[in-house]
Amino acid sequence: MKCLPFIIVMSLLFGVANSPLESAKKNEKVSKATNRALDWLARQQKHGYWEANGSQYRVAMTALSGMAMLSEGSTTTRGKYADNIERAVDYLIEMSQPNGLIGYSQDYHYTYGHGFSMLFLSQVYGEEEDIGRRKELRRVLTEAVKFAAGAQTSAGGWGYVSAKDGNDFDEGSTCITQVQGLRACRNAGIPVPKEIIERAKDYIEKCMTPDGGIQYSLKSGGGSRPPITAAALAAMNNAGEYESDMTKKMMKYCKDNVWPAAGHSLHGHWHYTHLYYSQVMYRQGEDDYKKYYADVSEDILRKQSADGSWKEGHVGPVYTTALNVTILLMDNGYLPIYQR
Questions:
Q1: b/e map of 280-318 (b: 16 or more CB within 10 Å)?
Q2: What is the per-residue pLDDT across 264-279, written as a single tens digit (0 to 9) for each?
Q3: Is 148 among the domain residues?
Q4: Residues 12, 286 contacting (CB under 8 angstroms)
């Protein structure tokens, strides 16, 4: 599938501009901002990996940073960030454990890194030209799917760690990470048993509150959460659910609580929310997406630091910068999992 050149995509994206000159200025602003951000990310890479504040979450940060670079159009063999992506892939392959976990058991949130790694590596797998690395990626992803299946809770969700390690604890955001990672693997040709996804969809439905939001946990409740609802809606779209009663209720909840009404509240998870809600809006069609993107991109661009990063949030600038770049470049269409 051929992708439109960047300038054409961005021209379409800003078709609501008042004039061609204004549109060009906006295109240039986004291009400059994302180039500066990706250059900053490239400088932060350490022996293949990235990390959050306090040297935490190396696996998750590596996968998310790699996704941002793939969004620009680079691969392991082509583009400005080919070397960075290649080293990130090699690091995550190295982090693949004998039991299939991509990460390390000492990390008490390892399912995040595992899910994001399945997502990133599956996108690389589809474009990988090196036969040896492609074979290795297939092995790692096949084992990763098996680990995710074994980590699923009795209710059909996932927790911060596997069901066995976490006493069957479930939590909405980690469930979304696994669902999207598994769906991306399946789309790339990695075998994923259908029942794993179906059980996860049932779990999400059981977590729905009367207002259409998704609560923090089926076991412990926690009330409906805009960030988790936006993420769950994106995951349901990935799984082929667009017009069900459940997704319609979730969409109404998001329109009332995510954009434009919510501003920057969102329980302190604005960037996480819009990483997923941008996927939802992109699939809504050109007109809705233009309005959404114009608003959200303006908010993102005005908060960029002089060095190219974004420093909001407690996780750290690598996390925020990787997510913002992915949001801004969603419409490039380079990542199969995010395509319409």
A1: bbbbeeeeebbebbeebbeebbeebeeebbbebbebbbb
A2: 556 679 999 999 999 9
A3: yes
A4: yes
